[in-house]
Amino acid sequence: MRNFTCVQDLGDLQQALKEAFEIKKDRFQFTGLGKNKTLLMIFFNSSLRTRLSTQKAAMNLGMNTMVLDVNQGAWKLETERGVIMDGDKPEHLLEAIPVMGCYCDIIGVRSFARFENKEEDYNELIINQFIRYSGRPVFSMEAATRHPLQSFADLITIEEYKKTARPKVVLTWAPHPKALPQAVPNSFAEWMNATDYEFVITHPEGYELDPAFVGNACVEYDQKKAFEGADFIYAKNWAAYTDPNYGKILSTDRSWTVDTEKMVLTNNAYFMHCLPVRRNMIVTDDVIESPQSIVIQEAANREISAQTVLKKMLMSL
Length: 317
Ligand code: AN0
Ligand code: CP
Known about the structure:
The protein is of the alpha/beta class.
């Protein structure tokens, strides 16, 4: 596997899951694979889990790691071609990318949707420039439209906790005070569609996701109806996708917050969220602290998803 930005890049998903569970059993069995190989992680946005879990995964494989926060200490980067650079950005991405490529063997990039231009976001302008100009294999640590390391960890978690072969998994929108990207829900939908689970998406009207990601999911506008019989509730906020509201907040209606009353409608469902989560906006204290909440186990699996991906990339260097 050269690059990793979406579920298809993994190839056989069941095989990748098998590899992930092998790594989870003994995460130091491939410790020689990354010897003298350097991972460069580039962050255009904040991170706690991705930063730590990916670095840990690389260390488990014997790699060296370097982390660059572009907005803290590096030169501010211009990303548009053709701009007269007389503003506050002293360096262009088109020089910075190949230079960064000189110092490492694999590059991880975090670059959220900016909500300035839908086409730019959905064409994945930033990560695609890394793929094109770095000369190195590149993987997504959440790009504009997807967060595949998160979705892979989510899938591993569901596989660990599911009680039936074909669980009912519900992705629910929940309120949030700031406009958030669609990357997590898009990606989650993409990965769920790659399984044979029963998959339902619920959100208020106006929050429809890109149909390319929704795929075969059942869309249910009545959140309570969607929760009935669910085995997993996956909560996430996102800003509107559809025009003319792209990137806008249309609702902060707290009747969509996941609470005990709604969880009672489910089949004793597990509660999941990628984190960071705003308590009592997305989910109540009671639900996230309940024994059915598996958000910490889910975050722990980020190390496993990252290590599986890095192992595959190292093997094809
Ligand atoms: C980001 C998002 O919603 O995409 C990252 C989640 C992993 N969340 C925030 O910015 C709060
Ligand atoms: N879930 C996740 O990617 O978290 P961070 O933004 O903290 O990396």
